[in-house]
Amino acid sequence: MTTDEERIALLIDYENLAIGAREDLRMTFKLGPVADALAERGRVVVRRAYADWSYFDEDRRMLTRHHVELIEIPQRMDTIRKNAADIKMAVDAIELCFERDYITTFVICTGDSDFTPLVGKLRELNRRVIGVGLKASTSKLLPAACDEFLFYESLEGVNAGTSKKPSGGRRSRGAARPPRTPSEREAEALPEPEVDVETSDGSEEALERGDVNALARLITQTLAGLNRSATGPVLASTLKRALLRKDPTFSEADFGFRGFGELLKHLESRKVIETSEGPARGDPEVGFPEQGTGEESAFALLVATVADLEDGDSGPPLSGLKDQLRKRDADFSEKEFGFNGFLQFCKAAKARGLVSMEWDEQVDDYVLRVVEPSPGNNGQRRGRR
Q1: Residues 266, 356 within the same domain
Q2: Is 284 in contact with 233 (CB distance < 8 Å)?
Q3: Do 88 and 202 contact (CB within 8 A), yes or no?
Q4: Among 287, 317, 347, residue at a domain's last position
Q5: How far is CA 251 from each of CA 36, 39, 98, 254, 260, rounded to the nearest angstrom?
Q6: Are both 56 and 111 inside the same structural domain?
Q7: Statement to judge: residues 238 and 346 lie in one domain
Q8: Is 39:245 a contact under the CB 8 Å cutoff?
């Protein structure tokens, strides 16, 4: 069967992810961010989650809303608990591989190294494999075996460390974990309590109200995701299909546009995106402007805020900095420019030579400082001291 989009089978070792999210991120695992990331990569045709669901009553409702088939794996009542989900997932994956030849991609949601041989076998059978796991609880063997690996903390819409840590429940398998390095703590560096993990600045409620600004943020988020996963230019038709996979009820007519092309022209006039002639008439290539005026203003707002918060040799920490920007501009959102989160936005400012970012052990966070041109150094920039 010839197709221009991936057909995806999603298999979730739910206990591994749910307990990891609770213990490592102090939050409840939600499938929404994973579903959105996969919607940018193809069409999910199989969704299965494996667990002893007597331990995850509330989670069952969340997964059912995402049309996930729940596979019951009762625990053996021996002196040592044994989770049978691993072997069941492996058997189902191989069975799907032979019985559903139209499936091109398997998404294995776990951090358990026991799945490494399964990943290798699926790739041997000419299937693409994407892994999903948490940084602190994912074996180093697993990501290297996959074609692509997504860390849950880095997905769009996940704001780690903001939810109240649930009480009770079982502890995950494995030994105690060592203290995290700055790179492992990146996802916890920015609390954003006003944003739920299942929504973003372009929330469902805002879209239902016909908010074009929320729609623009949704389109830039989707376009950024397609740019990261695509091997070539993103066409308007590809962007529209990805939006429909995220929300099957999406229609540009709800926002007053007669067609998707008219919507793209409107966003292009606002310097949100830019289009160019594509391989087929009426299906242009879609990308981001080289440097939109809105993006320039956003970086200028960051620089001004950091400069005002600097105190001698000390700069403001990353945590809480977004709130400071929103006090100055209530409409600020880095997602409007295609950035996954505020951390990525700050890294982009650092790459442009506008600010510096250094890990400060005393505050256990990144600290930002304004970078100014050095007058005697051919226009190069130096950190403010």
Answers
A1: no
A2: no
A3: no
A4: 287
A5: 17, 17, 37, 6, 8
A6: yes
A7: no
A8: yes
